[in-house]
Amino acid sequence: MAVGMWLYVQRVLIPHQKNYASMQQSPRGNLSDLYPRWLGARELILHHRDPYSAEITRESQIGYYGRPLDPNRPGDPKDEQGFAYPVYVVFLLAPTITLPFSLVHEVFFWCLAVLTGASVLLWLRTLEWMPSSIATILWILLTINCWPAIQGLKLQQLSVLVAVLISAAMLALVRRHFLMAGTLLALATIKPQLVFLLVLWLGVWVIGNWRERQRALWSFAITMLLLIGAGELLLPGWIGEFRRAMKEYYRYTGGGISVLDVMLTPLWGRIAAALLVAMLLVVIWPNRRTAENTRAFQWSVCFTLTTTLLIIPMFAPYNQLLLLPSLMMAVRASRELWAKGRVSRFFVSITAVSVLWPFVTGTALVLALAFLPGQTVQKAWDLPFYTSFAIPITAYAMLLVSRPLLSSHPNAADAKAFRTLRQAAASE
Length: 428
What we know:
The chain contains 22 helices and no strands. The chain starts with a helix and ends with a helix. It has helices at residues 2-24, 34-47, 54-65, 89-93, 101-126, 133-144, 147-155, 158-174, 178-187, 192-208, 210-234, 238-253, 259-264, 266-284, 295-311, 324-332, 334-340, 342-368, 374-378, 391-401, 403-406, 412-427. Helix 5 packs parallel to helix 8. It has 428 residues and is mostly helical.
């Protein structure tokens, strides 16, 4: 399935995109989402030019598409490729700005691939789950070769890096390296929409045991102040420019629309998003005092990340890498979930079908190339994406329905502590 997914992208999806671009006379350049950020970082640090300016946006279009966009051409893309990131993202990209982008493009792809594989190991250790070596290898292969990861790697999306930073921050919390956890989480705010709910939950969790956990909050706050302050020194007034850039980004990409907006209309989607945030706080509030190595804490992190995917104002598949720990929890407890009852079995089943659908259909389209002309197969290019919209919804429902089991089942640390107490009681 992993090989089939990559072959589908190379042999079916990309040829379809090229044919469509040719018919629409749409430009195709390097198509790297990293390029506008890299260009903005280079021009700001080396030449003191404003990365949010119209001039830099035009230069980004030349590199990304091969020429500036022309609003009078109906076939031109709508995404203007502006610098829609907090200015402190330039500090992460600073080591690359003196290198040619062709080299940065190649190296960054492989770095993201390796980091994505490493994030599997980070999440396994965060969840304190030690499957067999073969199972671990399968997790890594299927994660790197799932559609969200492939899309993120092909586009060189910084969301992939943010997903890795979040996994590293959560492992640091579990290992009680609170200073490191706060720093990593602050770096992940280069995509603030992906971490704001997680920061909110962890703030509640820190308050639940302030004396022991406060270092995580202070570390996060100090790192954020340093990033914001250094950004202000580099580009005074950048916060206002960033807000305008985000507003423009939602305008020209048609963004600002969440999964809930599509399901319920924008008005009701915003109302539903507010209700989901309120329900999240109500559901995870009792877990604020739980230890970082308990199932209740793990479930709270997974549920927070899954809720994030439902309410953020975009539903790009590459963001679904944040669902990885939720799927791991479900697979680890699959036998218990299946035995729980019909409702649990139903949501486990539709989640599994939604996640496996792209693998199966992508592989099927590749096999069809052996019997049908390429243009015929390309007509079904969107078949693997039929469940992209459903995956975060089904995962959310599965976590919510299975909460009593997933959040209360003891992990290895709990079981060891329980055995110790039982032995002590027996000796007494």
